[in-house]
Amino acid sequence: MCGNGWGHGWNGDWGWGGVVMSVLMVLLVVAVVVAIIFAVRYLSASPSLHHRGGAGPQGLRPEDRLADRFARGEIDSDEFQQRMALLREHR
């Protein structure tokens, strides 16, 4: 009942095929784990870094920082427009 005459499996010898399959399985698991890590890091990154180039040291372009300051009420509309014009002139 236990042996079927093939000489493989639990009671037989797998030979080099078993070693190769084991190594390939470990490599597959490692590749899947690395892919998951990269996917999580990519999806958790700031959207401005995915779609816009030229990010500054803190990850935001000067225009984005200026817009944030305007949105928080730190600067008024006139100052925002003046500074945006200056930024566009010096590009």
Can you offer a commentary on this structure?
Keywords: Membrane, Transmembrane, Transmembrane helix. With about 90 residues, this protein is mainly alpha-helical. It has 2 domains: about 35 residues; about 35 residues, no CATH class. About 65% of the residues lie in helices and about 0% in strands. The chain contains 4 helices and no strands. Helix 3 runs antiparallel to helix 4. The longest helix is centred in the first third of the chain and has 29 residues.
- Tally of separate helices: 4
Into which percent range does the helicity of residues fall?
Answer: 55-70%
Shape: rod-shaped
> What is the H-and-E element order?
HHHH
Query: Per DSSP, what share of the residues sits in E-state strands of 2 or more residues?
Result: under 5%
Give the number of DSSP strands: 0
Characterize the biggest β-sheet.
none
Structural class: mainly alpha
Tag the structure with descriptive keywords.
2 domains, rod-shaped, 91 residues, single chain, mainly alpha
